[in-house]
Amino acid sequence: MYRLCQFQAVYALEHVRKEEQKKFEASRRKYFKRSRTLLLKHKGKLKADELETVSLILSLSKPLAEAYYLKELAYDFFGS
User: Fold this and answer.
1) Domains in the chain: how many in total?
2) 80 inside domain
3) Which of 7, 19, 20, 74 could form a disulfide with 61 if both were Cys (CB 3.0 to 4.6 A apart)?
4) How open is the CA angle 56-58-60, to the nearest 5 degrees?
């Protein structure tokens, strides 16, 4: 059950990330594509520079920020 819920949280975040990156111009779209691993990493495991990058990415898209925080809630709830 735990893995299924974790998968759903990651899948939802990926869906939102892909939809949001389609809205940006080519240079920003490439930046979003390269951000996948940072966004999937648990917030507690991010280094200071990675955390700063994630904050910048999330400031560019409210739907992505909401999906990211829901993913973090799911990770925290299930103890990942």
Assistant:
1) 1
2) no
3) 20
4) 75
